[in-house]
Fold each of these.
Amino acid sequence: MPDLSPSIPALLANLNDQQREAEKQLREAETKLREAENRLRSFENKSAAISSLLDRTGVDPATIDDVIGGCVAQVGEQSTNVTRNAWVSAGLPQHVPATTVDRQCGSSQQAIHFAAAGVAAGHYDLVVACGVESMSRVPMASNARGGTGPFPPSFLSAIDGRLWAQFRVAQVLADRYGITRQDMDAYALESHRRAAWAWDAGVLDREVVPVPVKAEDGSFTGVELAVDEGIRRGGSMESLAGLPPAQSWEPETAPDITAGNSSQMTDGASAMLVAERSVAERLGLPIRARFAHFAVAAEDAAIVLSAPVPVTHRLLDRSGMKVGDFDAIECNEAFAAVALMWARVFGPDPELFNPLGGAIALGHPLGASGVRLAASLVSRLEAVGGRYGFQTMCEGGGQSNAMVIERLP
């Protein structure tokens, strides 16, 4: 049995230390609050997103066939089917079922895939695909406790004992693809610049749901979450260069991966309506886009961030499309190293690649990010008159989802 570096208990302890040291954030549509005001619970986050979706579309909630939601840390207030709990907590019809899926960071993108597949198969007419993560209230890796942990000796043997934190994996990929610290910092700075421009120009207004914050007793605090606060304006390469490695233990194994070129730990929820076309037409719903192609893929379970590359190859091979066919591309910015890895391999037009910034600036509430990216992708296609948009994201376990959305006139 190979030695583990670090061991499972040490890894979990280090992740907890990282969580405690991180800035406390609370976000709906990725908006943070002071820790003292951290009172929006996970199911309330998700309830707000779903209720707003139904209000905006005017769809009778009683006609929804299913609600499919993503969430990663399914423990505590995110446990026991948080999607169902959010639906019921919102006062919505209890005869409508709901389920929660976990494909790690791609959980709500997988929820979209399942919803679209169900509609295509004729099983559903109307489905809500959604996601949530409250990383301030349900810390990352808190679901890895219980029994002897999630990684048995047979799993550890299969990955040659390489149970590494994602910081180290991001460094491995940066080294593999010739991505420097300066490359990653410059990319991060541009992510913040683009996100700040998008907010200032009002581009993101229609995607965001202002949410009143409640106290633990359910009373309103008078505080409203309305704007992404993770965006850092006025940053510089000099300030980013001064940041230490984000991995405080064994920093020499991930020297170039910092808080500045990594995604932010955030709270947020997201929701979208997926409908069969004739049903949408009968209800008078605007038909904004269709799902053109899907793919999933996996590779090395230890190098958990690399699969956006093989899944993209698979989708392109199956669809016959080329990267040049896409008018907007969203590759989740879990780390700058991941986005730059994808760009190194596929060479997209930089202006079309994560055009409004990404998780480095806006945050990455794990289970909610897939739907959030899809909403931004559709909005971007509409804004520029584009036709095809591509989305992919890395996922724990060395997996990845990818899809192509076609805007419909």
Amino acid sequence: MSPNIEINENRNTKHKKQNFMAQKQTKLPALPLRGIVRIVLLIATIISMFFVPWILVRTWLTPLPDTVQEQVNEAIGLGFDGMIVYVDQGGKEPALYAAGWKNRENKIPADPHSLFKIASISKLYDAVAITKLVKNKRLSLDKTLAGYFPELVGRIENAERITLRMMVQHRSGIPNLTDTPNFWEDPPKNSDDALERVLDLPADFEPDEDYAYSNTNYLLISEIIKKVLGYGNSQYIREEILTPLGLKNTFGSIHDVNMDDVMSGYYVGIEDDIKSVDYGSMIATAEDVGIFLRALNDGSLFDEEEQEIYSSIYVYEHTGLIPGYQSIAKYHKDIDTVVIQFVNTTNFDGYTWNLSEIAYNRIVKILRKQKNP
């Protein structure tokens, strides 16, 4: 065979292979976009499984116990030091549940009647106070922050445009003081110190253009009430809300109570009880909060005009979270039930809040199941 023929045959073979490969490539069906998306989602799901907080999944999927007390007991196994739950079902006597420790060091069992730092749940009380003062023409929802405190013009951006209504509804754009550096490690000593931390900071957004939860709003609201009344909002809340409801276990701060009656508070990684640290929280028992929340939701706190005002400015449930204390206060209309939950363990970098919410939701599921077996 001549070299030329060999070369030609090699060329022919090469061409045949190329034609065959071309035919194979031509016959391969194009992968639809939907298929590509599914593959990408599957890969993303597999990858995300390595980052799933399995303690949350496991807690959520654990079979539901039959009773609230069993669920409260189980919740202690999630790393909580102590828990208190108050349940007020329409037509039934209210019930209290507790598990874990009131004081871990001294091995004092959780007491359902203990006082507790309710943190931002207090905003419900503030909103009720504002409602009553607006109805009595002592406050105006449309008056500006500058109108109440002219000295804040230039110190709080847009003070001349921010109204009381915007502050109540967290639509002011005023920065949140608890987000300022070292707030929890070095809490302010008083209201002036707290406000100083946000003065001269840029606004988060233009007034009434967005929503951002800001504790500064309610610090300023308490100062406005104090200026208008000539005394603190705690006194007004006691006179106009607590006393009419017969609530004797709700207080303005830890300075108004015997600290032995307050449930200890713990932060994960810190051994010491931190209940004596003052973050400016109201103090109350779960029962007192429950009675208040029932009155707020059934309308017995208001006359008709007040009800209309309140409904236009604020919500009917709330949660609370400060170091050592987390709380949930909600009314569930479908089963006519108020459920209050206190947990005295927190970790802002962990899952204690998520676990607390899961435990709460499981309690509500138990109550629904009992009502509608």
Amino acid sequence: MDLQKIIPYKKMSLKELLVPENKLMALIAVVLTTLFLIGVAIYLVHGHHAYAVTREHPWGLLIAMYIFFVVSSTGLCIVGSFGDVFGFKDYMVVSKRAIFGSIITILSGFAVIAFEIGHPVTMMIYNVLSPGLTSAIWWMGTLYGLYLTFMIIEFIFLMRNDMARAKIFGLIGLLVGLAAHSNLGGVFGFLNARVVSNGVFYPTYFILTAFITGIYLIFIMYGYKYRGQPFPDDVAKALTNFMKIQGLLLAILMFFETWKMLTGVYGGMPERADTIIHILHTKSFWLGEVLCGMVIPFLLILKSKGTAIKQMVWASVIGMVGIFYMRYDLVHDTQLFPMQTLKIREYQLPPSFVDYFPSTAEMMIGFGAIGICMILYFIGTKLFDLDHMPEHH
């Protein structure tokens, strides 16, 4: 089988493939991947005891990092679809790179979640043999598997410059991806026992933050590619347009967040108001989510009127830090309030908010997966021509 006929790639020796363009970034990627492997080894030896999760706080950093990666994937899919699916010529230049990014980010997310699930192989078998059609988590896994398949097929047709088929599979992949991602928000929205998360907010919030994350990442990708040199005109035009879209999306997100907090505290409803007030007293919310994730990039866009694309690259790096805090706080804050609020034995302290801090193994696996994503990206940029796109007909 000639792989070149299936997906065109640049032929090169293994040595050429592994020689890094940027030694510092290569070193960071290797160190992070090594930490990931060490974390996996610790997990394989000690099992879930290697994690800081408890019965009171069963979802930890690995769930947050999984959401972080799949949010990134869906966002890049949306960004890439502007050109090859919807046919906007100004955005065609970013389509290949964005779709490739969507593939590697969801693979990195799967790498993380594989070591959070107790038996991932058994899960895949019984996911088919005994589907839980009423389970949001079953739909999430199934839809994301289909989404990855369609993204790979779309990327193959993009590399073959078969735009007609790429558009078909790209549209199917986009719709499945949006369904999967909204369903992931539904996993939290369906939590009737956790009133701070229960409701329709998260299924829509996840789609909005995915689009925002995708734009942050496309700026980082092109900022790295054209570091120390001016952007080509077609890339600069696409990024300028995305920067203006990002300003609108961030404004909507701040509007969403404001009303979520106001409705949460209004009326002083037990548990929900207590949890929201606790969140509003945390540094991770104000410094991480609000300042890094929304305010700094938004102010830059307003000040420059959406034209400072070089500065937006750095604002996007800060924004991605904020996106991480959004994902981490989402998981942690959902589980903050104790389910057992009464004393059940003598001399017991009154139950309070549940504490959680990730273990070393969790941090190694969670953050180490960023190294896997970086290595896949660097290899992909060498193997594939991710820049040139044919005219869209």
Amino acid sequence: MCIVYVETTTKNDPPAKKRYPSDVEDAEWTFVLPYLVLMSLEAKQRKHELREIFNAVRYVVRTGVAWRYLPDSFPPWAAVYQQWHRWIAAGVFEDIVDDLRELLRVKAGKEKQPTAVIYDAQTLQGTIESGERAGFDGYKMKRGSKVHIAVDTLGYLLALVVTPADKQERQQVAELSRQVQDVTGQNVSLAWVDQGYTGEATADAAKEQGIELVVVKLPQAKKGFVLLPRRWVVERSFAWKSRFRRLVRDYERLAETLAAFHYLAFACIMLTSLLGTTLWSA
């Protein structure tokens, strides 16, 4: 982990005025700026303030607004859209989430890298934009995409895979496990999962990456809501991201864009946890 803080304000500078609840706080901006600067802030070709572009992207993921419907107070939507995809190509949001997770774990009195994780998946209803890559989830009775995630025991994102909704959870264990070990330096040895991950082949796929799968089963006589050991953590993570309206359905033509919006949402959530800022209300 390598974090470089850039001083963007002085003690005498007034706080930046927020026009929208989703606008980035000064402390948050100081943290994320080094990740977002892909060229010099004084570059001649830069026509718009980078902070305003970042505010616009946060506005999109929080409100779910279409790019062309961005308010005029932001830079032109095309400029925001282009910079957004430059950030995606550079992997900046994955880097932000990885560093924030380490800092939050240390803040909570844990080691930087987890030894145990939780896997789960969520099916998102598709739209016209995402229809070409959609699949039908017969269990949820939805046509769309499935977002497979791995989180640590605090609920912070480690890995993510987007597939058509007809792809089963157990089929993504190998890729999730590979990503988890890549970002943790082969530190994870245990993953809690639900009954959708049963099967010898699934266990072997995880074992190849040095991870043991532990299936948390529902009580045989289930009545009403049951809080499952360990697995409630990932359900809470899904609840966190549900506050971001761009993520309630799959509005993206590309799976990579949907994944990037998830990393951006978790970056926003984790920034508020680390810095004590306010996660904007509904």
